[in-house]
From TrEMBL:
It comes from Candidatus Gottesmanbacteria bacterium RIFCSPLOWO2_01_FULL_39_12b. Pfam families: PMT_2 (PF13231). This is Glycosyltransferase RgtA/B/C/D-like domain-containing protein. GO terms for cellular component: plasma membrane. Keywords: Cell membrane, Glycosyltransferase, Membrane, Transferase, Transmembrane, Transmembrane helix.
Length: 483
């Protein structure tokens, strides 16, 4: 167990900053700084930009430590992913007590899809931890139905809601498991109905303070446009559902590797024949079908929550292979998974430009992490250049304060710098006038751009340097402002 945990941590923590700060990571970290700042003023926001408050709160707390905020955030993500790893092992042992845990452990460690999001701080690793714990608690309830277990299940799920609302996909899965169990064991129908009620009551009790706070509903929600409306639903949008199903299948096929996907299909077939994977399959299928039916499009992040159940079924499929095929199949799958995971860890750009070139739709989804302004390439270089320039003088850095890279990331990295003041570009005239009147010595004014977005200051800017993105024409530009 210790060696597997060590291998898991090595895979998650090695070259952790090789992929630079992603757009959403910069946003979440900036929100974290804002949250702690509000908190210090005696204000306790329940939401930031319509998002739940727990993730910004914890990301704000870790930035109180004097280390790279991106590394700290990603280490926090890895911590939650370790909870998932340990929990899924416990689930597999409970479902298949006679089976070895090594194949499952290695599948989880070297699953490129899971590994990638475990190493990012976008909240998905928290959701997989909540999902896995919910599945484990559900299994213990079926073994020994106790009220306190249903309360605990509601608390875990409710706590997950404070991080991301994706957790709501767990609720119909739990309901369906209890319903099937009630049909199979009619003597326990009332007991299971009671536990269902207690679970839902505990969940609602935990999230009610958030839902009843008027401040939560005052923030602009941006997620609604991603969901199928009631009017669209009654039109039976079959083409959308088929498109979503295709996207989900391709994402799993490409990012978990084709061999693992085929093994998952075998695990479903063999498991249904023996009725051994019904509960993991429900926890896989219900969230997946919900996303296919209710979402207008697919992002790779949507499927991360179901990966624990997916890998449980895959590990079972491997166990049920004929003995003469087992060693060869496992060796081949393991070798491919290790190779693909290693490429993803060491060179995300190569993973994108070579392997994903065989899957154009999936390559388009992955491009947000390595291509264009959402990618973080050029951000850290900009920070280092400004810090070096500020060693013997004061810098005033103007930003447009767009949401995302590079603006949010620069705010995160530069907020604690004593010799660098970050100011919204709309205050450029008044700030320059104020500093000139104050006769503060050794002050230079800079503007940092997202590509060619110069805020109408073309005549006042002299380009100092630009940091180009490696795979496209986008760049982060640093300009000296003429006064």
């Amino acid at each position: 167990m210790f060696s597997l945990v060590l291998l898991f941590l090595i895979s998650r923590l090695s070259f952790l900053s090789r992929l630079p700060i992603f757009n959403d990571e910069g946003i979440y970290l900036r929100w974290g700084q804002d949250f702690i700042e509000y908190f210090g003023r005696g204000i306790s926001p329940v939401s930031i930009d319509g998002k739940q408050a727990a993730l910004p709160f914890f990301l704000g707390l870790i930035q109180l430590f004097p280390f790279d905020p991106l590394i700290l955030a990603r280490v926090m993500s890895v911590t939650f992913s370790l909870i998932t790893f340990i929990t899924v092992r416990a689930i597999f042992q409970k479902l298949f007590p006679k089976s070895s845990l090594y194949p499952l452990s290695l599948l989880m460690i070297f699953c490129p899809y899971l590994l990638f999001f475990d190493r990012l701080m976008t909240g998905e690793s928290i959701m997989t931890a909540v999902f896995s714990l919910s599945l484990l608690i559900t299994l213990t309830i079926l073994e020994n139905p106790k009220t306190r277990k249903a309360i605990f299940l509601g608390i875990v799920t409710g706590a997950g809601w404070w991080f991301k609302s994706t957790v709501i996909l767990i609720i119909p899965a739990v309901f369906l498991v209890f319903f099937i169990q009630a049909i199979n064991k009619r003597a326990k129908v009332l007991r299971l109905l009671w536990l269902n009620f207690i679970f839902l009551f505990s969940f609602l009790a935990l999230i009610l303070p958030l839902l009843l706070n008027p401040g939560y509903w005052r923030w602009p929600f941006e997620e609604g446009h991603r969901l199928v409306s009631f009017k669209e639903m009654i039109r039976f949008p079959l083409s959308l559902w088929l498109s979503n199903l295709r996207s989900a299948t391709l994402l799993l096929f490409a990012h978990t590797t084709p061999a693992v996907f085929l093994l998952f299909i075998w695990g479903v077939i063999s498991g249904l024949q023996k009725r051994k994977i019904i509960i993991p399959l429900i926890f896989f299928a219900v969230p997946l079908l919900s996303e296919i039916i209710f979402f207008k499009g697919f992002d790779s992040r949507y499927l991360v929550i179901i990966l624990p159940a997916y890998l449980l079924i895959t590990a079972f499929g491997l166990e049920t292979l004929p003995h003469r095929w087992f060693k060869a199949s496992f060796a081949g799958i393991f070798a491919v998974s290790v190779f693909m995971s290693s490429v993803l860890i060491v060179s995300p750009l190569r993973y994108y430009s070579t392997y994903l070139s065989y899957f154009p739709p999936i390559r388009g989804d992955f491009s947000q992490y390595v291509v264009g302004w959402p990618s973080g390439y050029g951000v850290k270089e900009t920070v280092d250049w400004l810090k070096a320039s500020a060693k013997e003088k004061t810098l005033v850095v103007f930003l447009r304060l767009n949401s995302g890279n590079p603006d949010d990331a620069l705010l995160v990295y530069l907020r604690k710098e004593k010799n660098i003041k970050v100011v919204p570009v709309r205050y450029l005239g008044s700030v320059i006038k104020q500093i000139k009147e104050s006769k503060i010595p050794d002050v230079e004014f800079y503007y940092v751009s997202r590509g060619n977005q110069l805020s109408g200051l073309e005549n006042r800017l002299t380009e100092k340097i630009r940091f180009k993105k490696p795979l496209d024409s986008e760049y982060v530009g640093i300009y000296l402002v003429k006064i």
